[in-house]
Write a structure and sequence with these properties.
This protein is an alpha/beta fold. It has one domain (about 1-265): NAD(P)-binding Rossmann-like Domain (Rossmann fold). It has 9 helices and 9 strands. It is globular and about 55 Å long.
């Protein structure tokens, strides 16, 4: 089985690629700049800029030239910014959508023709709790995840006649030993010193540090899902399971209370 993981330089992508490689799969991971990084990964690393048509196509062509097929595509490319709607600029939100939505869409569009030709395939898109709950001060990130959920669900129905599965993974923040902010998360520019945005970063860091979910656990779940003949559309994990059920039946007042508790934590 040939697997392509986009955004493999992140904590999840690196662990996931290693696990799938150990299970006997042929894994290719992508990152923007591979220079001097090849030795850091137990699987093949290829350069890809998800916001570039030419870069995406060149990467896909390279995998097809080497393997002749791509059986599983796992999209881990992701950006997160924190800031209120008032604080963030249109350009900052556009930049996030260029990666989190249009980047994922671009890679899917490049891989699907090969999966259709080979008669089967699986596409896994990484959503999150943010794809279920619109979180204040994270409107850019959560709106992109809502969009990813809708795009993936539509693609799920479009691909059914072609024997191509689409799966939406919904983990919560995973525990990782890394700084609260960095390449994976940043505040928007020009945040006032007294803004709640700064408190939101602290809440996110606290939530991540207390998380019982790890990249290893999420990777194992992805492996289980892609190994099954019958694959679910959505795979909620940890708190996402409860929130998914609540969203179906809970009144808005209960959702408001849930958000209030989050902001007060």
């Amino acid at each position: 089985m040939v697997v392509l993981i986009t955004g493999a330089s992140g904590g999840l992508g690196q662990v996931l690629g290693g696990l799938l490689q150990s299970k006997g799969m042929k894994v290719y991971g992508t990152m923007r700049n591979t220079t001097g990084r090849e030795a850091d990964f137990p699987f093949s690393i290829l350069p890809m800029e998800a916001t570039s048509d030419e870069s995406v196509q060149a990467c896909i062509d390279q995998v097809i030239a080497k393997e002749g097929r791509i059986d599983v595509l796992i999209n881990c490319v992701n950006q997160m910014i924190i800031g209120s709607v008032e604080e963030q600029t249109v350009e900052e939100v556009e930049d996030l959508f260029r990666t989190n939505i249009f980047g994922v869409m671009r890679v899917c569009k490049a891989v699907i023709p090969h999966m259709r030709k080979q008669g089967k395939g699986t596409i896994v898109n990484m959503s999150s709790l943010g794809g279920l709950l619109a979180v204040p001060y994270m409107s850019a990130y959560t709106s992109a995840k809502f969009c990813l959920e809708a795009m993936s669900e539509a693609l799920y129905h479009e691909m059914k006649p072609h024997n191509i599965d689409v799966v939406i993974m919904q983990p919560v923040a995973m525990y990782m030993d890394r700084p609260a902010t960095g390449g994976h998360l940043r505040t928007v520019e020009n945040v006032p010193a007294g803004s709640f945005t700064n408190r939101m970063v602290e809440i996110m860091a606290k939530d991540t540090a207390a998380s019982k979910l790890t990249p290893e656990m999420v990777s194992e779940k992805i492996y289980q899902v892609i190994s099954k003949d019958k694959k679910p559309l959505r795979v909620p994990m940890d708190k996402s399971k409860a929130v998914s059920m609540l969203k179906r039946v809970a009144p808005q007042s209960l959702i408001n209370k849930l958000i209030g508790n989050l902001l007060a934590s």
